[in-house]
C-alpha cells in the first residue's frame, strides 16, 4: 500500500523542481488560475520521474487496475514518458495515441499491437475538465479498445472526475489539488492565505465538459469558454472531429476567412479558388447555380483544397424531412456528400434532418470527414429566425448529434457558448452598409470582436475586386488581427493546463 509519507515526499519534490507554481495564470480552459502545474519539467529530473513512475505503478496495483492483458496509454504529450517508464517497470504493453492522424504510411491514429476488445488504462498528468482524457478515450474506443479507468498525477478538482465518469471512465488521482496545498502548508512552502485562495478558486470554478461552469449548483455560461480562447485550445474541446480539424487548420494557417464563391461558371470558381486559396480556411459554394457543374469540376476543386489547405462547404441550406435530405445530400446531379466537407442546414425540421443526413454517411465518406453548420440566424433585414428559433437550434447542436455539428451560422456571440463549436458569420465587408436586397454588412473588426465570429464569410467584397488575391490577403490579415485582439495577449502567450 502506498504510504502517505511517500506521497508527501514526492509532493515536496515536485514543488522544489518548480513543477507547480503560484500567481495568475491563463489556463487551457480559458480562465485564470492562482496555481499552475507544469509536469513537463520532470523529464529534466530523472530521479523524480523514476520515483513518480514507481509510485504510479504501486498506485495502479493498490487500485486493482493491474489486470492481465491491459495496455497502457499516456495522454500526449506530457504523460508519454511516465507511461513509458511504467510500461517497462510493470512489463505492460503500451500504446501511443497520436494527436493527429498520420497522412502517410499506415495512417494510424493509435500505434502499437492490440486487438478489438482489449483493455487499455490511460495515464495522464494533470486534469482540469478531463477533456484531454476524453479525447484519448474517443480515439481508443474508435479502434475497438475498452477504456474504463484513468490514472492521473494531479486532479485539480474542477469537474474532471465527474465529466469522465459521465462517459464511463473512472478517474483515480495520485494527488488532488487540495491535498497538495495542505502538504505545502505543512512544509511551510506556502502561506495559509494562498491555501484559502486556491480553495475558493476550486469552489468557484467547477468546469463541465462543454466549457461551462457550475457554481453553487447553477450552470453558468462563461464567455471565456469560446470568444477568449485560442483555436488550438478549443480544438481539444471539440466533439465534432471535423470541427477539431478546422480549428487546427485555422490556427496553423492563421486565417478565419471563408470565401463565398457565388459564381455560375466552374472555370471562374476554380481560378478564384487557386488565387485566394492561400488566404482562406473555407471555400463556400452554391453548386446549384453552377451552370456547367461536373464531376471533373469537383475533382479539380478538391485538388485545389488539398494544395492550398482549405475545406469545402456547400451552402445548400437543407430544410426538408430526413428521407428527402438524405437523397439530396448523397444523390442527384451534385452528389454533395461525396465532396463537400461541410454543409449548411436549417434546424426548422428538427433533429430528423441531422439523422437523415447522417444516414447518407458511408465507409467512402466517413462521419469523421463530414460535418454541418446549423443555421440559427440570418444576416438579412426582417429575417424570421427569432430568439426562440435560435435557442431551439442551439439545443439541437449541443444535445443531439454533437459529433456531426461543427458549428452555428449566426450573428450573435452570446448564442454560441460551447468552445468546441464554431460560429460562422456572413455579411463581412471592409466597409459596413446594406445592399439593395437587404443584405447587411459589418466590418471585419466588428464581426470578430463584437459579434463573436470565428469564421467570417466574404463574397462580393472579394469577387468584385480587380485583384481578388490581394483583397483576400487584406481580409485575412484584418480578420486575424481582430481575432488576436479578441483572445488577448495573455491567451496568445499564456500557458495551458
CATH architecture assignment name of the largest domain: Alpha-Beta Barrel
Shape: elongated
Instruction: Compute the CA-based radius of gyration.
Output: 24 Å
Number of strands: 21
- The amount of beta strand, in percent, is 15-25%
Please work out how many helical segments DSSP would assign.
Answer: 17
Total domain units: 2
Distance N to C terminus: 30 Å
The CATH class designation of the largest domain is Alpha Beta
Protein name: Uridine 5'-monophosphate synthase
GO molecular function: orotate phosphoribosyltransferase activity; orotidine-5'-phosphate decarboxylase activity
InterPro entries: Aldolase_TIM (IPR013785), OMPdecase (IPR014732), OMPdecase_AS (IPR018089), OMPdeCOase_dom (IPR001754), OPRT (IPR023031), Or_phspho_trans_dom (IPR004467), PRTase-like (IPR029057), PRTase_dom (IPR000836)
EC number: 2.4.2.10, 4.1.1.23
Amino acid at each position: 500500500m502506498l504510504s502517505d509519507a511517500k506521497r508527501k515526499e514526492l509532493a515536496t519534490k515536485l514543488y522544489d523542481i518548480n513543477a507547480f507554481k503560484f500567481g495568475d495564470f491563463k489556463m487551457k480552459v480559458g480562465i485564470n488560475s492562482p496555481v499552475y502545474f507544469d509536469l513537463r519539467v520532470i523529464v529534466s529530473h530523472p530521479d523524480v520521474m523514476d520515483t513518480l513512475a514507481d509510485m504510479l505503478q504501486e498506485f495502479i496495483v493498490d487500485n486493482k487496475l493491474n489486470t492481465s492483458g491491459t495496455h497502457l496509454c499516456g495522454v500526449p504529450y506530457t504523460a508519454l514518458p511516465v507511461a513509458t517508464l511504467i510500461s517497462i517497470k510493470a512489463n505492460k504493453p503500451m500504446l501511443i495515441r497520436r494527436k493527429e492522424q498520420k497522412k502517410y504510411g499506415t495512417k494510424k491514429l493509435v500505434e502499437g499491437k492490440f486487438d478489438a476488445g482489449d483493455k487499455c488504462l490511460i495515464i495522464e498528468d494533470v486534469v482540469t475538465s478531463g477533456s484531454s482524457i476524453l479525447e484519448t478515450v474517443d480515439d481508443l474506443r474508435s479502434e475497438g479498445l475498452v477504456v474504463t479507468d484513468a490514472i492521473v498525477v494531479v486532479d485539480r478538482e474542477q469537474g474532471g472526475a465527474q465529466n469522465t465518469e459521465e462517459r464511463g471512465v473512472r478517474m483515480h488521482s495520485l494527488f488532488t489539488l487540495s491535498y497538495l496545498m495542505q502538504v505545502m502548508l505543512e512544509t511551510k512552502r506556502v502561506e495559509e492565505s494562498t491555501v484559502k485562495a486556491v480553495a475558493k478558486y476550486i469552489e468557484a470554478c467547477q468546469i463541465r465538459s462543454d466549457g461551462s461552469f457550475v457554481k453553487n449548483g447553477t450552470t453558468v455560461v462563461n464567455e471565456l469558454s469560446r470568444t477568449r480562447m485560442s483555436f488550438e485550445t478549443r480544438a481539444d474541446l471539440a466533439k465534432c472531429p471535423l470541427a477539431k480539424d478546422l480549428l487546427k487548420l485555422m490556427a496553423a494557417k492563421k486565417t478565419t476567412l471563408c470565401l463565398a464563391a457565388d459564381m455560375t461558371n466552374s472555370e471562374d470558381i476554380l481560378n478564384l479558388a487557386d488565387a485566394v486559396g492561400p488566404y482562406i480556411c473555407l471555400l463556400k459554394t452554391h453548386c446549384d447555380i453552377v451552370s456547367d457543374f461536373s464531376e471533373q469540376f469537383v475533382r479539380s476543386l478538391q485538388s485545389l483544397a488539398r494544395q492550398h489547405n482549405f475545406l469545402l462547404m456547400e451552402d445548400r441550406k437543407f430544410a426538408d424531412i430526413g428521407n428527402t435530405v438524405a437523397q439530396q445530400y448523397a444523390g442527384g446531379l451534385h452528389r454533395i456528400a461525396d465532396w463537400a466537407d461541410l454543409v449548411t442546414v436549417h434546424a426548422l425540421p428538427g433533429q430528423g434532418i441531422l439523422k437523415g443526413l447522417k444516414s447518407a454517411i458511408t465507409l467512402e465518406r466517413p462521419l469523421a470527414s463530414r460535418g454541418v453548420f446549423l443555421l440559427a440566424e440570418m444576416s438579412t433585414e426582417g429575417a424570421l429566425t427569432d430568439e426562440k428559433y435560435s435557442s431551439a437550434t442551439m439545443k439541437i447542436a449541443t444535445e443531439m448529434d454533437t459529433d456531426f455539428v461543427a458549428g452555428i451560422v449566426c450573428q450573435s456571440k452570446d448564442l454560441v457558448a460551447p468552445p468546441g463549436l464554431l460560429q460562422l458569420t456572413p455579411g463581412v465587408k471592409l466597409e459596413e452598409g446594406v445592399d439593395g436586397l437587404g443584405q447587411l454588412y459589418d466590418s471585419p473588426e466588428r464581426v470578430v470582436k463584437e459579434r463573436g465570429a470565428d469564421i467570417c464569410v466574404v463574397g462580393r467584397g472579394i469577387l468584385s475586386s480587380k485583384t481578388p488575391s490581394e483583397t483576400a490577403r487584406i481580409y485575412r490579415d484584418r480578420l486575424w488581427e481582430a481575432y488576436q485582439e479578441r483572445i488577448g495577449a495573455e491567451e496568445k502567450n499564456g500557458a495551458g493546463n
